[in-house]
Amino acid sequence: GNSVTQMEGPVTLSEEAFLTINCTYTATGYPSLFWYVQYPGEGLQLLLKATKADDKGSNKGFEATYRKETTSFHLEKGSVQVSDSAVYFCALSDPNTGNQFYFGTGTSLTVIP
Amino acid sequence: DVKVTQSSRYLVKRTGEKVFLECVQDMDHENMFWYRQDPGLGLRLIYFSYDVKMKEKGDIPEGYSVSREKKERFSLILESASTNQTSMYLCASIAGGDLHQPQHFGDGTRLSIL
């Protein structure tokens, strides 16, 4: 079946530190992969996506590369800001299951000045 | 931009009440979803719908039902609310056909059952 596993938090970093949030997946087909961000009190917003192997998604300084050989889609940012404090969700959609999405459990990030 | 609107940001109800959570999307999307979000458990799918009057059970449908009478509106119903249904509820929508597009989410309804 389909599943997403992401690193447990919470993660606390100082401003300008390097961020990595690990995400690995299991899928029966050839999924598309997504990172969503949830700011306090809000719904999920799309951060970036990649639709095929070796694609790199990027947005707001965040990047993630679709690695089929390691079934991974790790989120990285070179220099985090206080405003990046949020919960981050890794997700996949599998064409074999229509438009259903499968989400990781979320990783809470706090960036301190 | 896609807009998914959930009718309430915060809701407080009593045990045994029938509760309605409403979701409206403005992009003519075929597919709509209801999730609940709990700490440490991520998002869990309750129900989804591929078209008007169609519904499919997700992973945790017990204690819930849904209604989709119009394409733009997807309602989640708690038939007899219980305290273990206190949670954040998120609605999402996505167009049919293109399987590489993201789901679009509303801002969520934080529901407390007393």
Describe, in plain words, how this protein is organized in 3D.
The complex is a heterodimer of chains A (113) and B (114). With 113 residues, chain A is mainly beta. In chain A, 0% of the residues lie in helices and 50% in strands. Chain A has no helices and twelve strands. Chain A has strands at 3-6, 11-14, 19-21, 23-26, 32-38, 44-50, 56-59, 62-65, 75-77, 86-93, 101-103, 107-112. In chain A, strands 2, 5, 6, 10, 11 and 12 form a six-stranded mixed β-sheet that branches. Chain A has a four-stranded antiparallel β-sheet with strand order 3-9-8-7, with no helix packed on it. In chain A, a hairpin with a 7-residue loop joins strand 10 and strand 11 (101-103). The radius of gyration of chain A is 14 Å and the shape is globular. Chain B has 114 residues and is mainly beta. Chain B contains no helices and eleven strands. In chain B, the strands form two sheets. In chain B, strands 2, 4, 5, 6, 9, 10 and 11 form a seven-stranded mixed β-sheet that branches. Chain B is globular and about 40 Å long. The model of chain B has no long low-confidence stretch (mean pLDDT 93). The interface between A and B is medium-sized, with 22 and 25 residues.
Tell me the total number of β-strands of chain A.
12
The best one-word shape of chain A is globular
Helix content class of chain A = under 10%
**Residue-averaged pLDDT of chain B:** 93
What sequence of helices (H) and strands (E) makes up the elements of chain A?
Answer: EEEEEEEEEEEE
Share of residues in helices of chain B: under 10%
- Considering residues with a beta carbon less than 8 A from a beta carbon on another chain, report the largest interface and each chain's count: A-B, 22 and 25 residues
How many strand segments of chain B? Answer: 11
Question: What class, by secondary structure content of chain A?
Answer: mainly beta
